[in-house]
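Board notes, transcribed. Complex of a protein with 3,4-dihydroxyphenylalanine.
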Amino acid sequence: MINIDQIKQSFEQDIKAITDVESLKVKYLGRKQGLLTLAFKELVNLDQAQRQKLGPLLNSLKKEIENAILNLEKQSASSSEKADLTVPPISEMTGMLHPLSKTQKDLEDIFLSLGFTVENGPEIESDYNNFVALNFPDDHPARDMQDTFYIKGPETKDPHKKLVMRTHTSPVQVRFMKTHKPPFAIIVPGTVYRNEATDVTHEYTLTQLEGLVVGEDVNFANMVWTLDYVLKKYFGSDIKTKILPTYFPFVEPGAELAMSSPRFKDGKWVEMLGCGMVHQNVFKHAGYQTGKYQGFAFGFGTMRFPLMKHGIPDIRLLHENNLQFLSQF
Ligand code: DAH
């Protein structure tokens, strides 16, 4: 016997206590055991008069139940989409290179592609390697170009024993040449120290990159080409470079390379690095026969590179280790 009212009541109760739409659907509309499905099967066995009476009632109950289930399905779909967009995301911090390390790596890659090798030296140096061997004799006024941190120790006049925080990466030139014969092309990235006050463009702990290329026929034009190539690779091929004469004790002739691009400082020329042909006195201190070799050397502060490239306004930001600042690069 088909009891339409009973099915209807049972559905109304179930829907109030609903936990799972799918099992409700199976219970009433399931293809084999669904209560409505069974009722429709029974309908076939009834006589015509009963069929005509119950058929439309059963059909309308089926519609009602189908609609109710459809609504429930829609509701549960939209409620699972209701994410609270104001909840801050769980951020996954991924590791990254510090802009100074990244700069060093980018520059190393450019020089490595030209056949240079990467060398290192200590940050505490003898006065001899930092100055004397680089043709800064004692009391030479050029020593004033670099404000030096001297390391306290027994009073001595011996430049091999007197220690300094290296003021530049150039002493590694001497160290390398004492143990290697030309030809070679090296770069030396490293940290150097200057006893000076800090401001937006000055730091007392600096990173530099030194270069030295020595052989029997290395010339000034090789140097100009190399430096122009490296700067264009790093900053972009639209930059212009020019060479101006200047003085450093360890090179002769000494030069400085300036760069210009509308992207930096309104297109004004910016001094980027010091360079020149290695002074024969430096070769002599390294133990090379004078006159046998020629070479070029160059050196520059690498902190200026990311500052210019990314428009960072203050050099000191690079050492503050503020993650919010660093994670932009
Ligand atoms: N050592 C110089 C400095 O710190 C930079 C420099 C200039 C290095 C000329 C060189 C060079 O090798 O040839 O200011």
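Strands lie at 117-118, 124-126, 163-165, 184-193, 205-215, 240-246, 251-260, 270-278, 294-301. The CA atoms of residues 70 and 212 lie 78 Å apart.
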